[in-house]
Design goal:
Blueprint lengths: L3 E6 L3 H13 L3 E7 L3 H11 L3 E3 L1 H6 L5 E4 L6 H10 L3 E4 L7 H14 L3 E3 L7 H11 L6 E9 L20 H17 L2 E9 L4 E3 L9 E3 L5 E8 L4 E7 L10 E5 L2 E4 L11 E4 H5 L30 H12 L7 H20 L3 E2 L9
The chain binds nicotinamide-adenine-dinucleotide.
The site of nicotinamide-adenine-dinucleotide has 22 residues, from helix 1.
């Protein structure tokens, strides 16, 4: 089979994971070129991953062999680079967030449609083994009718590990743009579209300190809210409460739990592709009332692993899905309408926090795609 030829634009931190995983886990794909606004960054990845070419984004997009361009630039540049990719006639895979405004998101999708090109967008972690297993457990009724979700992305920020953390604290940054996509794409692929959002926001610290070795001790200003508490009503009536924070040193809040009429499902970290879901059934709680013992011995109910676990932190499934969808003439699972709906939920959380108003969502999403 002829390999699908990929070009990667943006050779920063996450390109290490994409280039590693496409190489080791996607025999049907080949990365022909890497490009960056900084030539030395592209050259570094060319050498580290044995890629045929390091070049400028313009040179990469002028290569007729490249079918899919993967956009791994910082969020504030996504729309600009996405448009360049589509204008050059390439299919697009974009890292999250898809866009910083709904106008940009819609215009990018319209451009792709006009050009007959296909868009895929991260997060793709809902295609991984843990979230696939969770969806199957829910669809099979293992927790009965789902009622509520509690999700918490409680972190102290990225400056302990990311060498350039400033982008996470200016326009296009913040914990919702950075992490919301993982939680919201898991949410809507499990339960269908969201309907409305209300949120409050806060900024715990006016400045942040960098803790990575090269710039240890440097301080920079925080320009955006770094904590959001949101309430979301799903179209199926479920109620979701969600916290996204860069201001928390330590938390014992559940990362992602689903509460149903017959039990509780503890969903593994939606930023990861592996992990074991934990299921707790109502008969465990009721056992004592019937004079018996918890049939699972106080532990979670055993669940099968329904999909191959290729590693807990990987970044390749979305690109693989997009390439397969183009070959097969189908809509990718990581499709533009999912990206648009997830983008609207994220933007609505931040807009509601800014205005104090509940936001009724305009977009929807069909998880059957
Ligand atoms: N770092 C992570 O762990 C992580 C994880 C998942 C997703 N992401 C997403 O991946 C994207 C990139 O994140 P990162 O952490 O790798 O960022 P980064 O800052 O480490 O790297 C971004 C790279 O893009 C380059 N760049 C900037 N403007 C460009 C342009 N116009 N054309 C070409 N290259 C340009 C920069 O020179 C830099 O090398 C973001 O959207 C982020 O949300 C990052």
């Amino acid at each position: 089979m002829k390999k699908t030829v990929i070009g990667v634009i943006g050779c920063g931190v996450i390109s290490n994971t994409y280039l590693r995983d496409i190489k080791r886990l996607c025999p049907e794909l080949t990365v022909k070129a890497v490009a960056d606004a900084l030539p030395e960054a592209a050259m570094r990845q060319k050498e580290a991953f044995d890629i045929p070419a390091a070049c400028s984004p313009q040179e990469l997009l002028a290569d007729p062999e490249i079918e899919i361009a993967v956009n791994l630039t910082p969020p504030a540049l996504h729309t600009k680079v996405n448009r360049q990719i589509l204008e050059a006639g390439k299919h697009l895979f974009c890292e999250k967030p898809f866009a910083l405004t709904m106008e940009d998101a819609r215009a990018t999708i319209a451009l792709a449609e006009e050009k007959g090109l296909v868009i895929g967008c991260a997060p793709d972690s809902f295609l991984g083994s843990s979230l696939t297993t969770c969806k199957k457990l829910i669809d099979d009724g293992r927790i009965g009718r789902p009622l509520y979700v509690c999700m918490n992305m409680m972190s102290s920020g990225v400056e302990t590990w990311h060498p350039k953390p400033e982008n996470f604290y200016r326009e296009g940054g913040g914990p919702v743009y950075d992490m919301g996509g993982y939680y919201f794409s898991a949410l809507v692929t499990m339960f269908g579209p969201a309907e409305s959002v209300f949120a409050l926001g806060g900024k715990g610290f006016e400045e942040r300190t960098i803790y990575t070795p090269e710039r240890f001790g440097s301080v920079f200003p925080v320009e955006v809210p770094t904590h959001y508490s949101a309430l979301i009503r799903m179209a199926n009536g479920m109620i979701v409460n969600a916290n996204f924070s860069f201001d928390i040193w330590k938390s014992n809040m559940p990362m992602f739990e689903v509460y149903g009429t017959e039990g509780t499902l503890e969903v593994p970290d939606p930023n990861m592709h592996g992990g074991t879901p934990k299921l707790y059934r109502k008969e465990q709680t009721l056992a004592a009332a019937y004079g018996g013992e918890d049939p699972a011995g106080g532990e979670s109910w055993p669940v099968p692993e329904l999909a191959q676990n290729v590693g807990t932190y990987v970044r390749f499934l979305g690109v693989k899905d997009l390439a397969a969808a183009i070959r097969e003439g189908r809509t990718p699972r990581v499709n533009a309408h999912l990206a648009l709906h997830v983008t609207e939920i994220m933007i609505s959380v931040m807009e509601s926090a800014r205005t104090g108003q509940k936001v009724i969502l305009e977009t929807s999403y069909d998880p059957g795609i």
